[in-house]
Write a structure and sequence with these properties.
By secondary structure, the chain is of the alpha+beta class. The chain is built from 2 helices and 5 strands. The chain has a 5-stranded antiparallel beta sheet, covered by helices on one side. A hairpin with a 2-residue loop joins strand 3 and strand 4. The termini are far apart.
Length: 139
Amino acid sequence: MKLVIYRNGGFTLVENVVTLALVSLLSLSFINLAILAGKMARSAREQLTASEIIEMKLEAIRGSTWGQVTSANFVPTQFVVTNGAVYTGTITMRKKPVTETYGDSLVEVIVAVRWNTDRRPQHLQMTTWISPYGFFASY
C-alpha cells in the first residue's frame, strides 16, 4: 500500500494577517491622499473666488468716471462677500507719490481680500493705477 500525502497550496494564518495589515496600510495611505486632494481643491477654489471678487471690484472702479473715482464717498473702503467662505476686503485709494507732471492725475487702487481656509488665514491683493487717461495694472 502506498501512502499519498496531499499538500494544499494555502496560506497560513500568520501570512493572511500580515497581508491584511499591509493592505490596510496601503488603503489608509490612499484615503489620506484623497482627503488631501479634496482640501487642496477647496483651497484653490476659494483663491479663485477671491481673485474674481478683486477683479469685479477693480472693474467697477475702472468703469467709473474720473470725477466719481476722486470723490470721497463713491468707492466703499470695506466690503464683505459670502460665497461658501466669508471674504472680507478693503479698497485703498491714494495719490501716487511721483514727481512727474502727471502725478496729480494718478491714483493707486489696492484691493485686498482676506478669508480663512481650514482655520488658516489667507490673503490676496491686487493693485492698479488709474488716471483720467487710462489705467495700468500690477499683480
